[in-house]
Amino acid sequence: MKNKLRLRYTSLLTWFVILLMWFVLTETKVINSTLVPTPIDVCKTFFSLLENGYNGISFWQHASISLYRLIVSSFCALTVAIPLGLMSGYSRKIRSVVDSVIQFYRPLPPLAYYTLIILWLGIDESSKIMLLFLAAFAPIYLSCVAGVEKINQDFLLIAKSLGANKKDIFLTIVLPACLPEIFTGIRTAVGIAYTTLVSAEMIAATSGIGWMVIDASKYLKSDVMFVGIIIMGCTGLILDLSLKKLEDKIVFWKGKE
């Protein structure tokens, strides 16, 4: 308990030092305020965005549409990638069909195929959600496959010798054993999808936090850019902590002997 508190205080101290250096360097004009606005200017811009919005759209609409794209795409990715990944890890035939396709598109930059997705699905929300879906799909799939491969085969053989059928083996051995890897994949996937969100909102979009940052960069509105970046970072941190809390409740045996 003391170690956890000590680490937490260390993290808080680190951020205090970063904010103090940011304040001192910008207030003393060591760094040009056009490039790096002061913390006070960023706070003023944040409250201005809350009151007036950006480009005629309220701040909460920008935030909600970005979260909508992220949540829907991540949910779709985990509902497809988890069963497909578990089946691929469990069956070499399924893996031989699916794995090469995923390994092919996984290293491709999102913008390389985003224009194709727009041509196929149009410029509405479906193309953006599809891009985020593809970004989130691969990490979850690979984590599920890795989780199945790590299972001790003796457990499966013992279960079969005791008369367990495939359904029982999957529900009582395979799925619980893979849950830690699955949650790791989900947390990674949400982070990757969030970083891809900016790419999705760069083209054919007029709303969203990512679009707000890109649009502000065109006019050197560094204060708006900083607000958007800080909000995306804090939102990503909250999502990751929420997933970690959920993991601790569901996978309560992780890390315990």
Give an overview of the whole structure.
The chain has helices spanning 2-27, 39-52, 59-90, 92-105, 110-121, 125-149, 153-161, 166-202, 209-218, 222-250. The protein is mostly helical. The protein is globular. The protein starts with a helix and ends in a 7-residue tail after the last helix.
Order of helices and strands: HHHHHHHHHH
Radius of gyration: 22 Å
Helix content: over 70%
Average of pLDDT: 87
The total count of strands amounts to 0
Largest sheet: none
Low-confidence stretches: none
Cα(first) to Cα(last) distance is 19 Å
Shape: globular
Structural class computed from helices and strand pairing: mainly alpha
Question: In percent terms, what proportion of residues is strand?
Answer: under 5%
| Count of helical stretches | 10
Give the structure's gist in a few sentences.
With 257 residues, the chain is an all-alpha fold. The chain has helices spanning 2-27, 39-52, 59-90, 92-105, 110-121, 125-149, 153-161, 166-202, 209-218, 222-250.
Features:
single chain; 257 residues; mainly alpha; 10 helices; globular
How does the SSE layout of this entry go?
Elements: H1 2-27, H2 39-52, H3 59-90, H4 92-105, H5 110-121, H6 125-149, H7 153-161, H8 166-202, H9 209-218, H10 222-250
Helix pairs in contact: 2-10, 3-4, 3-6, 3-8, 5-6, 6-8, 7-8, 8-9, 8-10, 9-10
